[in-house]
Structure formats: C-alpha cells, structure tokens
C-alpha cells in the first residue's frame, strides 16, 4: 500500500483502540516499491511532522506510520539528511508522548475545569506511549544516540515510563523504557546527563516550592524566617507544577536518584535537596510517601560527611518525623501502612548515615531512642488496636532494637509489656502475623538485652506460655499458628540459655509445670 493507504490504516487503527481492545499492534501493511524507496527525510516532510497544531490523535497516527516504515525497511542506506531527521524525530516523539496535565492532581485553587480521562482515552494514551517508545527503539537502530544534543529531553521521556504504578504507564511500555533508558545510563557522560535533567527539567518545576529551613546551596539555614511567599505557597496551584501539571517529573526524579553515585550526589547537592523536602513536606500523603521512599534511596548514595557538613540530617529528621503520626483514624489504614513503611526505613537509614562510625555511636543511639520512644511506642499507643499497624510497628521495633544492640536495655520496661500484652491477648490467635512478629521481637530482645533479661524473665515467660497454650488448644491449628508455636519454643530455648547460671531455671520451670501440665513439652531445660 502507498502512504495514503497507510495513513488511513493508521487512523483506523488508532480510532479502534479502546479499554477493551488495548492492542498496540501496528496495522498490517506492505509498503509499495515507491514507498520503500522514499527516504526517511521525505516521509517526515510528507507527514508534516513539524506542524505544531496537531492533536494527540494525529501525532499518534504519525508515530504509527513511522513505525511501519522503519519496521519494514531492509538494509536501507541512510543519507546525512536521514540522520539529521532521526535527531529531530527523537526529540519530537519524546515530547509528543510525555504524560500530560490530565494525569496530574487537580489543584483545588485552579480556575480551570477538571479534566477526567475516560478508560478509552487512557487506553489510547498508553498505546500511543508504547508506539512512541517503539519508534525511539527503531530510531536508535538507524542512528545510535551517542552524542544526541536532545539527550535530556529523550531521557526525561524514557524515565517518566519507568514506574508501573503511574496511571499513564503499562507493563510493555515500562519494559521498553527501562531497556532504552539503561542504554543511555551506560554512557560515560551519565553524570553530565543527570545534572542536565536536574538543572533543566527538575529544578524549574520545584523552584517555586520554597523551604525556609534550607539555603539555595542546600544547607541548613541559620535562624530561618518564614517569608510571605512561603507561608501562602500552598494556596497557589502554580507554586507546585510538579504536582498539578507535570506529574511525570516525580518519576523522572526517582530515576535520577537511582542512578546517582556519591560523586554525583555531591556535585548536584543544591538540585537534589529542594525536591526531596518539597515531597516530604507536601500536604498529601501520596507525595509524603514518595518523598520518604526517595529519601531512603538518596541516603544509600549520600556521603555521611556531606550530610554532617551541610547540617541537613536534622532537617530531614524533622521533616519525616510527623509522618509517623499518620495513623488511623485520622488517616485511612491502607494509606497509614504505606506511609509508615516509607517513613521508618527512611529514619533508620538517616540515623545510620548521619551518625556513621564508632565516634558517632552515642548520637546514633540517641536518634534511635527517639524513634523508638516517639515513633513506635507512641504509634502503638494511638493505633495498636489496628492489627496490621501493630504488626508493622512491632517489625520496626525489632529492627531498631537490633540497631541499638545492648543499649536497647533501657527500653525493656516499655517494650516487654507491649510484646507480652500482644501475646497474652484473649483473641490474639485471630491474626497470626502479629503474633509471629511479636515472638520474633521477643527473640531479638532476649539476644540484644541479655545482660538484663534475667530480671524480666517472668514477664517474658508469661506472654510466651499463655500464647503457646492458646495455640495448643486450638481445635484446628493453622499452618501460620504452627509456625508461631515453633517460634515460641525457640524463644523459650533462647531465654533458658541466657538465664541459666543466673537463676534456678529448673526449679522455676518445675513450679510452672506443676501449675499447668501442658507446659511440660515447652519448658525443657
């Protein structure tokens, strides 16, 4: 078929895509000899690709035609003009498929009418994105993108499709985008490219989201005073284009963070800190979660000395700590779980990086003490009746106690009653994961706090034995409860080995067995 036939076929193909028919397959076409002999530059001219007034659907049709042309060619020699056109097309398609404002949050202060995409429209956007990424792959075969002057634009586009959780993305597009973006990531100029993305794409979108706690150089501000612009920035939707217009930039920022190393973190410090704090400080839980997750990624690559020198460790801690109180009933349980799963690892990583090495051990332990006391224990007191929240908090407690080591003994008087209370609760067996987490926490407490465990053996035995007997008496013991029972038996063995020599274990166990014969198979010395 000639190009007119191909354009018509492409139009029909695009119009036929719906939520129930999500095919991204190209229309079957056999190019005529005339079409085959046409150069890429001539085809682009015929399609009038450079016309700026085209709709998204028309752009999709052009992308489809170009894909058919490049997919069917065989051993074609490309002229200098074709190679120049490839450079243009890369930039053109990268801008054409970049996610639009329709996928961003709607600003409550906007005067515009809210745009809501239908399922069919979303399907078309996803199909167009995939077709655009396929075109970028075809163009890469024609002319490798070694020194493409539009590399920041192209990589920004590719990076925006590397997170499957985004509404504009689909698995096929993500796989192709990840593959293509990694080709660029292996470039010897990666550090320069990352700086370009941060400088040209990320910084302008976060420029109006000010934070009075830091300077323009990304350092802790001395005696910061809130400005009028800062105080009212949330009332202006234009202050957050990264949230209300160009939401794809958050995925791009994540891609950049994942490809940084220590030297590039140091080189781009003033470009990295404002977006991180803007996300963590945002009023929406969704963005706070992303901010905390991004902070954890950032800290893996952040030199401890740089964090200390800039004074931002305290700023990050103060920004993340309020997230720990995103608990039911003020926050939906599902969102609360996501928030806590992001915030606790970020704060634990922050303590490790901020206070790295033996000389900072006291300061690190102090930070972990605050996290245990003001985060985990307070969180459990406020939302412990939500079993999934309780399970998460107990798991985080285990991590913090492990980090503290023997210095965790100061918290035994608070930690052990919490854990044994969970184990001894009347309906504890209704949710085995919480029991398993609690028993594992008890095991950790026994190992790390062994010098003082003998003084708390009665409290520990109370929780373990009550829980063990309840599970033993269950009419139909589930596989999960069986694992809990086995973990309790391991915990008792640990306790026995730790306190043996300090107390008369045999006599105490015999006394307990005399009271309840069921304990005979548990309390074995």
TrEMBL record:
GO terms under cellular component: cytosol; nucleus; TTT Hsp90 cochaperone complex
Name of the featured protein: Uncharacterized protein
Family: Belongs to the TTI2 family.
InterPro entries on file: ARM-type_fold, Tti2
Residues annotated as signal peptide: none
């Amino acid at each position: 078929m000639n190009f007119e036939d191909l354009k018509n076929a492409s139009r029909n193909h695009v119009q036929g895509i719906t939520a129930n028919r999500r095919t991204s397959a190209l229309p079957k076409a056999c190019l005529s000899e005339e079409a085959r002999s046409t150069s890429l530059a001539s085809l682009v001219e015929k399609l009038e690709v450079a016309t700026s007034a085209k709709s998204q659907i028309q752009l999709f049709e052009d992308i489809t035609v170009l894909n058919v042309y490049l997919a069917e060619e065989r051993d074609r020699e490309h002229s200098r003009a074709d190679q120049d056109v490839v450079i243009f097309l890369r930039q053109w398609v990268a801008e054409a498929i970049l996610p639009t404002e329709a996928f961003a949050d709607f600003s409550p202060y906007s005067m515009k009418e809210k745009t809501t995409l239908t399922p069919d429209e979303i399907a078309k956007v996803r199909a167009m994105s995939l077709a655009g990424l396929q075109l970028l792959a075809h163009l890469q075969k024609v002319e490798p993108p070694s020194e493409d002057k539009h590399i920041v634009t192209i990589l920004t586009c590719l990076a925006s499709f590397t997170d499957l959780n985004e509404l504009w993305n689909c698995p096929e597009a993500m796989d192709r985008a990840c593959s293509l973006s990694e080709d660029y990531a292996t470039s010897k100029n990666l550090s320069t490219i990352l700086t370009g993305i941060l400088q040209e794409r990320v910084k302008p979108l976060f420029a109006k989201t000010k934070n009075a706690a830091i300077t323009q150089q990304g350092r802790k501000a001395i005696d910061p005073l809130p400005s009028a612009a800062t105080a009212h920035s949330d009332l202006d939707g234009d202050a957050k284009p990264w949230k209300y217009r160009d939401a794809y930039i958050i995925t791009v920022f994540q891609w950049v963070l994942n490809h940084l190393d220590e030297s590039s973190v140091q080189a781009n410090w003033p470009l990295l800190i404002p977006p991180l704090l803007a996300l963590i400080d945002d009023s929406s839980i969704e963005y706070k979660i992303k901010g905390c997750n991004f902070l954890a990624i950032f800290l893996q690559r952040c030199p401890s000395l740089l964090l200390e020198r800039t004074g931002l460790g305290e700023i990050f801690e103060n920004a993340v700590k309020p997230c720990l109180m995103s608990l039911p009933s003020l926050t939906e349980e599902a969102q609360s779980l996501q928030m806590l799963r992001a915030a606790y690892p970020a704060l634990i990583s922050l303590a490790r990086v901020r206070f790295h090495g033996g000389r900072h051990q006291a300061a690190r332990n102090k930070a972990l003490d605050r996290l245990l006391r003001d985060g985990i224990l307070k969180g459990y007191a406020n939302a412990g009746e939500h079993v999934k929240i309780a399970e998460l908090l107990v798991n985080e407690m285990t991590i913090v106690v492990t980090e503290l080591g023997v210095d965790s003994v100061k918290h035994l008087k608070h930690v052990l009653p919490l854990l044994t209370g969970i184990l001894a609760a009347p309906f504890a067996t209704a949710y085995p994961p919480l029991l398993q987490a609690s028993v594992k926490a008890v095991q950790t407490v026994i190992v790390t706090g062994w010098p003082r465990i003998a003084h708390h053996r009665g409290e520990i035995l109370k929780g373990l034995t009550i829980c063990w007997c309840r599970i033993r008496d269950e009419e139909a013991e589930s596989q999960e409860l069986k694992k809990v029972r086995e973990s309790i038996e391991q915990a008792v063995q640990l306790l026995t080995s730790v306190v043996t020599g300090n107390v008369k274990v045999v006599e105490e166990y015999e006394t307990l067995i005399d009271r309840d014969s069921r304990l005979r198979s548990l309390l074995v010395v």
